Amino acid sequence: MTETGSKGSVLVADDEPISREFLAEALGMLGLQVTEAEDGLSAIAMLNEQHFDYVFTDLQMPGQDGLAVLGASKKQDSDRPVVLVTAHGTMEVAIEVMRKGADDILEKPATANDLELSLMRVMDRARLRRENRYFRRQSVGQGMLVKSEQMQQLMDLIGKVAQSKASVLIRGESGTGKERVAAELHRRSGRATGPFVKINCAAIPESLMESELFGHEAGAFTGANKRREGCFELADGGTLFLDEIGEMAHGMQAKLLRVIQEGEFSRVGGSHAVNVDVRIVSATNRDLERDIEEERFRGDLFYRLNVVPLNVPPLRERKSEIQDLVAHFLPETVSVSGPAMRLLESHDWPGNVRELENMIQRACILCTGGVIQAALIAPWLGLGVEPTVEIPGPVQPAESLAGRSLSEVEMQAIFETLDFCEGNRTKAANMLGIGVRTLFNKLKGQSPQRSH
């Protein structure tokens, strides 16, 4: 055992001085910063006073025992590893402490090797918990931006629907954020701590879709070397999001319907029924009613999926959110000029929020001086190199700036933005990409009729 750099802090609680000193010395040699507590009461007090990454505690101590220390630690930080050390290491004791949340148990007299192996086990488990939380956040994604009345109504409906088990069909144009709505449903439901599994039905070939959804047994087909769980099993206890459900092949629709009706399925190549608890949320940008009439989509499956319909409005119907969406997509080092923002707000965005996000990302890369100007984005909006259409608001395309001083140009930009914002300095500062105090300082000394 070699001494290493610090791996974190540990609280060692034991009422026997010799045992406590050994634990402290051994854990210190493993690279931990050690704090000692001579009994359970002292340990609980220390937990309330400072942060520890790990806790090693004797089980039997006078007053507050190791189980009390375990309970206090988990109440304060449920993810912090706690190891119980006991001279009474029976199977019954081990089962009891594990049921109450202990991450490991060691029998006295513990050796230095025992402590090292235990520390490695709890560190690995803590790392896996962190990774699981990270991947769950990545899977569910970020929350939704809600500013318009239409989106607020949608969020209210999501709140009513989330706690039920009913299937939900999310409809809307491509790029409106249907996946975000599905994630919000999951986040607000009683399944929020369970998995959120996504599958794009348009991206999976028909020959592989059954295996993707239901899994397969080893030897089910060429290349199936071992059993593989499908999306239904992976989503057990959580939500399965079937994106682009309208693109699913007709034959696969029948198999999906059977699973929804019977509540069970078999893996490809298997004969045993598998039961899972999954809520199905699907999404489409297709006219499924027309597809039903033209026999491209099963009507019986549609009614199973469309128990609760949710409609996501296109961005052109909620333009009041564009400015906030742009601010959300922008890094701190980039701002958007007032004329450029008005161009963005005047566009109809056929690609919806996805198109807006992509354009902002492109503009951030290509802009000069950390400011996105109207001249940069105008061609992307079909307006040519220089906008020839009327820009919404009182400001028209700028006249030639040649021969004018930078301070003069800057003040014109400030005054025109203030005019556009009807004198609202906070909104004007946001549009200009500067702080309100900076705006106030720049306006000092200007004539009253121009300084708002």
Detail the topology: elements first, then pairings:
Blueprint: E1 8-13, H1 17-29, E2 32-37, H2 40-49, E3 54-58, H3 66-76, E4 82-86, H4 91-99, E5 104-107, H5 112-140, H6 149-161, E6 168-171, H7 178-188, E7 196-200, H8 206-214, H9 231-234, E8 239-243, H10 250-262, E9 264-265, E10 274-275, E11 279-284, H11 288-293, H12 299-305, E12 308-311, H13 322-329, E13 335-336, H14 338-346, H15 352-366, E14 371-372, H16 374-377, H17 406-420, H18 425-432, H19 436-443
Parallel strand pairs: 1-2, 1-3, 3-4, 4-5, 6-11, 6-12, 7-8, 8-11, 13-14
Antiparallel strand pairs: 9-10
Description:
There is one protein chain. The chain has 452 residues and is an alpha/beta fold. The protein has three domains: 8-137, Response regulator (Rossmann fold), CATH 3.40.50; 149-313, Rossmann fold (3-Layer(aba) Sandwich); 318-443, Helicase, Ruva Protein, domain 3, CATH 1.10.8.60. It is 45% helix and 13% strand. It contains 19 helices and 14 strands. The chain has a five-stranded parallel sheet, with helices on both faces. A five-stranded parallel sheet has the order 7-8-11-6-12. Helix 17 packs across helix 18 (425-432). The longest helix has 29 residues, at 112-140. The radius of gyration is 31 Å and the shape is flat.
